[in-house]
Write a structure and sequence with these properties.
Blueprint (H helix, E strand, L loop, with lengths): L1 H28 L3 E2 L8 E3 L4 E7 L4 E6 L2 E6 L12 H4 L3 E7 L5 E11 L2 E18 L1 H4 L16 E8 L23 E3 L1 H6 L2 H14 L3 E7 L18 H16 L2 H18 L28 H5 L11 E5 L12 H18 L6 E8 L11 H4 L4 H14 L6 E6 L13 H15 L12 E7 L2 E6 L3 E3 L9 E4 L6 E2 L1 E4 L4 H7 L3 E5 L8 E4 L9 E3 L10 E2 L18 H35 L5
Parallel strand pairs: 2-8, 8-11, 8-12, 9-11, 12-13, 13-14
Antiparallel strand pairs: 1-3, 3-6, 4-5, 4-7, 7-8, 9-10, 15-16, 16-21, 17-23, 18-19, 18-22, 20-21, 22-24
Helix pairs in contact: 5-12, 9-11
């Protein structure tokens, strides 16, 4: 009887312990982990060593196999892993990393197998080609289905175009892995009508055209954050390299040190309670101080230093890439971050930081300039008032900052001011994606039949009552007219007025070589001109295209060095209300003066016409 009881007890114990044992096995099975940038359907960068890394049990050996290539590593000792809110998932784990030989492009599906002890991770349908990162603000994130390229989604069954998307993961410190919930595609996905519709419109148009033209697998990683300023997209270590950006970084660090999440939660709560009372709604709960909206947390706001880089682009450095496309909206033209001088240096540091992070001075970089902001288009009735917009100063900083960045890789600034549509998020994204693809196919891939030839200003010289501009290529109006439009001119007083312009005439023997390379600019309101600006406004008139190519607008430019009156102290507003009012009042006065003088001249011309043909 005792034997029977003991047997029953043993059996009961086994039954009770089996779930526990299974749970332990399941827990053990989760020790081996790959970085979240790796998944089935991914594209690995061709022509560069392939780095694979993750976490596992300290001291264990990890073996990695991709096709016939193998490599092993020993897991390092346990160390903290910085992934916001995920510390328990990485507790007790150490990091491991292997490097596999570089490969040529191949669309033949490969399997990646990672083994450690009894654990195994297997990823399938992996191809080798080129990986491009789509970076920037909401205009880069804008989905294909919401753009003028939405009909392209129906043609998006492209097996060798793969997509990966990160969203809402700005962080105050550099993350070691991507927050799982931030991978909005769930991992790498193959392009299809469904997956492409949700992906970046600019990114899809770019990637699909490159893939179809080059024929190799193309991977696109979208790391765009709506409302982000360039300050948030620069790697943290770069800020100390320049006095202007270091001053800003020190300001942010001081704000971070002084921040009290409890007090901030109370402040938000009081405001929300007051609003609820006013609207006769139930009183809201107090916000969790540990989970405040990122905009309210210094260092974590997408307007603050390195926050987007920390949780988006910087998280997967080591995963080799071919290049980056960057397109930002208007966040840096408004508010505290509207500082063109600082922006120019940050653009330079950001591009250098990418090339350093991915250990590739040849990294290709395309900067798509600000589109028109959807506001009132510049015209003869508002020209001077719309010429004091901040947007063109930032466009200039984008172009010059890119040119000053260290590195030898292909780089281009692609003007976008001519792509005009209503709203801060214009739906015209197809044009930007196509222009970027044309540049890449011409300058990165050197595909015959795709040319990208921009034109630059060579000289600007005063001659009598006009300025004479010379370019290193032909510039042609895009509206079927022969008149260049979009110029303004100023004398020593710095007061710009809308200007007349014409192409310089040449003798027949020189016409073929020199035609459309020299423009004369003048205004009867400026007797001794010294400076000219072109396409200088958020939504400028400028109608010139490089070599007559509809895809390559002549970049906005100025010949003066009269900068925006920018305050360099980050604790002070960039432009004071007093100075802002002075600028607006002055622009209004110039506009009224020009229109009055034009009206007078119109009357004079009419009077002269009346006298024509009359007997003396």
């Amino acid at each position: 009887m005792k034997t029977t009881i003991r047997s029953l007890a043993a059996m009961l114990c086994m039954v009770l312990l089996t779930p526990l044992a299974s749970a332990q096995v399941a827990a053990q099975a989760k020790i081996l982990k790959l970085h979240n940038i790796f998944s089935s359907d991914m594209v690995l960068q061709r022509g560069k060593p392939i780095k694979i890394w993750g976490w596992g049990k300290p001291g264990d050996e990890v073996s990695v196999k991709l096709g016939t290539d193998t490599a092993t590593a020993v897991v390092a000792k346990a160390a903290p892993v910085n992934v916001f809110g995920q510390s328990e998932a990485y507790a007790g784990k150490g990091r491991w990393e292997v490097t596999l030989p570089e490969r040529e492009a191949s669309a033949e599906p490969q399997t990646l197998t990672v083994n450690s002890g009894t654990e195994k991770v297997e990823l399938s349908n992996i191809v080798v080609g080129d990986v491009w990162v789509m970076h920037g603000q909401s205009n880069m994130a804008f989905p294909l289905q919401s753009t003028n390229g939405r009909t392209l989604a129906a043609q998006a069954n492209i097996p060798n175009l793969r997509l990966f998307s990160i969203s809402t993961n700005e962080q105050a410190s550099l993350q070691d892995d991507i927050l799982p919930d931030a991978v909005t595609t769930g991992g790498w996905v193959v392009s299809s009508p469904e997956t492409a519709a949700e992906f970046s419109g600019i990114g899809y148009v770019f990637g699909s055209n490159v893939q179809r033209s080059v024929g190799i697998p193309i991977g696109l990683i979208k790391v765009a954050r709506g409302g982000a300023s360039i300050e948030s997209m620069v790697p943290l270590h770069k800020f100390d390299e320049d006095p202007l950006t270091k001053r800003y970084a020190d300001h942010v660090k001081a704000r971070m040190a002084a921040f009290d999440p409890e007090a901030e939660a109370d402040r938000i709560w009081e405001a929300e309670k007051a609003r609820a009372k006013r609207l006769k709604q139930p009183e809201p709960e107090r916000p969790d101080p540990k989970n405040l909206r990122s905009w309210n947390v210094p260092g974590k706001s997408p307007s603050d230093m390195a926050s987007v880089h920390n949780g988006y682009f910087g998280v997967f450095k080591g995963y080799n890439i071919k290049g980056v496309l960057f397109h930002q909206g208007y966040n840096n033209t408004i508010g505290d971050n509207c500082r063109p001088k600082r922006y120019r240096k940050l653009m330079e540091l950001m591009v250098e930081g990418w090339r350093e992070d991915f250990n590739d001075p040849n990294l290709a970089v395309g900067i798509i300039g600000f589109c028109a902001d959807g506001g009132q288009m510049q015209n003869g009735e508002n020209f001077e008032e719309r010429s004091i917009d901040t947007g063109p100063y930032i466009r200039e900083s984008q172009r010059l900052g890119l040119a000053e960045a260290a590195g030898t890789g292909p780089a281009v600034f692609i003007p976008g001011y001519d792509v005009q549509a209503p709203g801060l998020h214009p739906n015209k994204k197809r044009e930007h994606g196509w222009r970027a693809a044309r540049w890449a196919l011409s300058e990165v891939y050197e595909v015959k039949g795709f040319d990208w030839k921009s034109v630059n200003l060579v000289s600007a010289e005063p001659k009598d009552d006009m300025m004479v501009l010379t370019f290193d290529g032909r510039v042609l109006p895009d509206d079927g007219e022969k008149i260049p439009r979009g110029f303004s001119i100023a004398g020593e007083d710095g007061k710009f007025y809308m200007a007349h312009a014409r192409f310089q005439a040449w003798e027949k023997k020189d016409a073929r070589q020199q035609a459309n390379r020299t423009i004369q600019v003048w205004s009867p309101l400026v007797e001794k001109p010294v400076a000219v600006r072109y396409a200088w406004g958020n939504c400028p008139i400028g109608n010139l295209k490089c070599n007559g190519d509809q895809d390559i607008p002549l970049a906005s430019f100025r010949t003066d060095d009269w900068d925006l009156p920018e305050e360099e102290d980050p604790a002070v507003k960039p432009i004071s209300r007093e100075i802002d009012k002075e600028r607006k009042d002055d622009a209004k006065a110039r506009l009224e003066y020009r229109r009055t003088e034009e009206a007078k001249r119109a009357v004079e011309i009419l009077e002269r016409l009346k006298t024509l043909g009359q007997p003396k």
